[in-house]
Specification:
Helix 3 runs antiparallel to helix 4. The protein contains four helices and four strands; from the N terminus they run H-H-E-H-E-E-H-E. The chain is of the alpha+beta class. It has one domain: Alpha-Beta Plaits. The chain has a four-stranded antiparallel β-sheet with strand order 2-3-1-4. The protein is globular, with a radius of gyration of 16 Å.
Length: 127
């Protein structure tokens, strides 16, 4: 079902596999992951990236520093905190989905976070 929805989105966006191939790319999925760092030091982040993100996304990823704001849905309290944004374009496969889920789960557990924000887009990518 998920693959069907993504394929439909690609068609609607005019990014069919054939068009993407003409541009020298491959249909993929781009994940943007938002990691709040209110209680995560630079060293702890670097260790997490090396121990978890790199092994799960060995082909590479982009990491950006950011400042974020979010509202805890349980308490309705708004918090601002420094953040990391990880962006990666990968094939839409069960292995990839599992790797992303592992990264998010490990971060939430390791740093007692409620959520890791996630945005997913169908894209045409070439590397």
């Amino acid at each position: 079902m998920r693959a069907t929805v993504l394929w439909s989105m690609l068609l609607l966006a005019g990014c069919t596999g054939l068009t993407c191939e003409r541009l020298g790319g491959t249909p993929m999925v781009e994940y943007q992951l938002f990691f709040g760092r209110s209680n995560v030091s630079d060293q702890a982040w670097a260790e997490f990236a090396a121990q978890v993100i790199t092994p799960d996304l060995p082909a590479g990823f982009t990491e950006l520093d950011a400042d974020g704001q979010w509202m805890n849905q349980g308490t309705r309290q708004i918090s601002r905190e420094r953040s990391k944004v990880v962006i990666v374009a990968v094939p839409d496969t069960p292995v990839t989905a599992s790797a992303i889920a592992h990264i998010k789960d490990e971060y939430r557990q390791r740093f007692a976070q409620i959520v890791v924000g996630t945005v997913v887009y169908p894209v045409c990518a070439a590397f």
